[in-house]
Amino acid sequence: MPEEALELLAVRADGVYIDATAGLGGHTGLIAQQLTTGVVIANDRDPKSLEMARRNTEQWSDRIRYCQGPFARLRESAAAAGIVKVDGLLADLGVSRYQLTAPERGFSFMADGPLDMRMDQTTGMTAADLVNHSDEKTIADLIYHLGEERRARNVARAIVRARPIRSTLHLADVVSRAVHRTGHLHPATKTFMALRMAVNEEPEELDHLLRIGPELLRSGGRMVVISFMSIDDRKVKERFRELGREGRATVLTKHPLQPAEAEVAGNPAARSAKLRGLEWK
Ligand SMILES: C[S@@+](CC[C@H](N)C(=O)[O-])C[C@H]1O[C@@H](n2cnc3c(N)ncnc32)[C@H](O)[C@@H]1O
User: Fold this and answer.
1) For ligand 1, which residues put their CB under 6 angstroms from it?
2) Separation of CA 92 and ligand 1 centre (Å)
3) For the chain, which residues score pLDDT lower than 50?
4) Tens digits of per-residue pLDDT, 102-115?
5) Residues 5 and 20: beta-carbon distance below 8 Å
6) Which of 44, 66, 113, 181 is the most exposed place for a label (fewest CB within 10 A)?
7) Residue closest to 206 by CA, chosen among 158, 239, 166
8) Residues 42, 67: contact at Cβ < 8 Å?
9) What are the distances in angstroms from CA 120 to CA 117, 133, 196, 225, 267?
10) Minimum-distance ligand 1 atom for the alpha carbon of 22
11) Which of 31, 41, 44 to mutate to test the pocket of ligand 1 (most atoms within 8 A of CB)?
12) How many angstroms separate the alpha carbon of residue 75 from the centre of ligand 1?
């Protein structure tokens, strides 16, 4: 949904922008192309992705400041680039296709790799640390709440019995034996998603983004968020509505924008995308 996101952001050639989730630089590049005297901060917590974003956006690098850090430090990242208020902030939540498909990042059950799942591999606990050292109830609770997996207790029991879990495929195999396939989802989908969210503290990070992001906007500035998980979209919707009710912002999307059929046909992963925007008063 890059066109819809950019349209909602209403980029001005002399404006100041933050791409909070630069990934491989796709959106950053689209924003940078529209700037003349303006600037865009390309932020991502993943140093490897940011390096790729830097290479992919080299031709506009005079208008881009690259910052590595989580949403919790967005204000500091902007300040380090000499920026206090912005005309727009874009966030495209979740993980990128690169992160999901590179076996060495450990997000995927489609290929064997270390059970890592950290977006920033320089710091914090890996998914292996989590499954091998947490107690059974902690594992069950997070798979239930973050993954919305009804069989979370069975999965947690199977994980604890199979420890140490050595790799992504080892975990996928253990989970598949504990949960039977229903519908088209791989049995390990929800467990992998829950672990990824826990390892990267995604719910807490989204809370930071929804608190800090709007306050970085100058009057008339816009914040645009693309979510892929309903649990995220719900939070974005509620926070935007709250800011609207308080009279601090105008919600630009009464209903979320969703990708056109043609985009879904070319990129099935886009099917669940929801885009919301607000304008700061
Ligand atoms: C869906 S991808 C973005 C793709 C990007 N829009 C592009 O055009 O290439 C999401 C990116 O957000 C980053 N990310 C996710 N949560 C983050 C957080 N809490 N703080 C900073 N970056 C985050 C991930 O590392 C990933 O690179």
Assistant:
1) 21, 23-27, 44-46, 49, 70-71, 92, 94-96, 119, 205
2) 6
3) none
4) 999 999 999 999 99
5) no
6) 181
7) 239
8) yes
9) 9, 20, 12, 21, 26
10) 5
11) 44
12) 17
